[in-house]
Amino acid sequence: MKVLIVGAGFAGSVCARELAEAGHQILLVDKRPHIGGNAYDEVDEHGVLVHPYGPHIFHTNSKRVFEYLSRFTDWRFYEHRVLAKVDEQLLPIPINRTTINTLYGKNLTEEEVGAYLESVREPRDPIRTSEDVVLSSVGSDLCEKFFRGYTRKQWGLDLSELSAGVAARIPTRTNDDDRYFGDTFQFMPNEGYTRMFERMLDHPLIEVRLGTDFESVREAWPHDHIVYSGPVDAFYQYRFGKLPYRSLRFVHEHLPDRSRIQDVGTVNYPNDHEYTRITEFKHLTGQQHPGTSTVKEYPQAEGDPFYPIPRPENEALFKQYEALAEQETRVTFIGRLAQYRYYNMDQVVAAALKAAEALLDGNR
User: Fold this and answer.
1) What residues does the UDP-galactopyranose mutase C-terminal domain cover (predicted)?
2) Alpha helix (H) ranges present in 22-129?
3) Cα–Cα distance for residue pair 312/296, rounded to 1 Å
4) 326, exposed or middle or buried, with CB in 10 Å at 0-12, 13-18, 19+?
5) What is the rounded CA–CA span in Å between residue 194 and residue 212?
6) Around 141, how many Cα atoms within 13 Å sit in the side-chain half-sphere?
7) What is the value of pTM for the model shown?
8) DSSP SS3 for 134
9) What is the rounded distance in angstroms from the CA atom of residue 279 to the CA atom of residue 282?
10) Are strands 292-300 and 277-280 parallel, antiparallel or unpaired?
11) Chain segment 161-194, per-residue pLDDT in tens
12) Phi, psi of 38 (to 5 degrees)
């Protein structure tokens, strides 16, 4: 086959590699001037490895995904930790025993923390919104201190206006585990994500064209199949209207005379400032450098699509596009934008491997 693949992030790049190894000719296009999608990283002008599109921390419970990516990178062990600024305190998030004890001046055991959370939670039935999830889990005070303000900044909506799945991603712990993720495999690519993508796409049957729009090659490059990881509404020229997304503005800063400014990789600001969080990249990469580079994230309505907005009316609109997509026999839709889902990186890799397998099974 000759396969046109749209998007050089995880979805497109994994499919490109799998199909090329099976002997198929690949043209991979991306409208950006680089590979790697939002996971792209680069050395800034000060010599610090940064993530232009915000922090990307790899974590997975899938041994298959970890072993697959290990073909293209060595790893640096890294467990991400996040603090939230509440009043004048920096407290672990997800909420754990340390959070509760420090915030309220208590000295509770694990068992007592469980009992405390049980006493303050406000059960909701049925669980429909993210507000229902948070109040049922930690009650109104912790909701106001950690979640409501952050959510309003991040999404431009109240917790009560978002589907339950948004808040359900964040656990609550009764022990002192302060890791942001609990996955089995928590690592960072040792030489960065871009180097990993370069190795993945280094195959004689893969041609990569950057700064290239899908429409410019859609008819110009004869192909047997399309693997599409762009916005599904754009594929259909917005036939039913645009799918809503939340975007981000990134403000990068370098401090030449400070080797570290934070105790952890990311600090959240649920109630202060217009930005949601600051990430300091040297925590993530382990890089040694006399200065340090950070990024602040300012959520906004306009700009590149980053987060599908999980609301019932948006899901209903997506279903109209999904019905069209399911009728396609020569197009595979894969990834966050094509499937209008918030996927972690490992989920995209797993889905891409599955999609490539299905495509190969149908063409053997």
Assistant:
1) 145-342
2) 63-69, 97-104, 110-120
3) 30
4) exposed
5) 19
6) 9
7) 0.95
8) helix
9) 9
10) antiparallel
11) 999 888 877 889 999 999 999 999 999 999 999 9
12) -70, -15
